[in-house]
Amino acid sequence: MTDRTTLRLSDERKRLLDQASKIVEADSADDPPRSDVIDAALTHLIESHENLEEVRGEYPATTVKDIANTSVLGLRYRTSIESVWR
């Protein structure tokens, strides 16, 4: 990963950050800084990955996918989004 000084916000990224902000905020009057929202999302991503790796091999892949209730179980930068559980 390269360090960048700017973060380009497409409409989709802005929408996702707005949704994540609502999850992170304490109440409707709270307006958390974007850095706190990104930190929370990154922490959640890392913890989710660790949790999925812990159960890999213990349970059938379809069970893990159903329990995780997510459509994104694997990411490949600049190529595709695919499930590594199939």
Q: Total helix count? A: 3
Q: What's the β-strand tally?
A: 2
Q: Whole-number average pLDDT?
A: 78
Largest sheet: 2 strands, antiparallel
The string of secondary-structure elements, in order, is: HHHEE
Please tell me what the overall shape is.
elongated
Helical amount among residues, as a percent range? 40-55%
Distance between the termini: 27 Å
Structure class: mainly alpha
Q: How many whole angstroms does the radius of gyration measure?
A: 16 Å
Q: How much of the residues is beta strand, in percent?
A: under 5%
State the strand order across the main sheet: 1-2
Weakly predicted, low-confidence segments:
none
Number of domains: 1
Index terms:
86 residues, mainly alpha, 3 helices, 2 strands, 51% helix, elongated
Characterization of this structure:
- The chain is mainly alpha-helical.
- The protein has one domain (11-81).
- It contains 3 helices and 2 strands; from the N terminus they run H-H-H-E-E.
- The chain has a two-stranded antiparallel sheet.
- A hairpin with a 3-residue loop joins strand 1 and strand 2 (80-81).
- Helix 1 (11-24) packs across helix 2 (34-55).
- The two termini are 27 Å apart.
Give a short overview.
The chain is mainly alpha-helical.
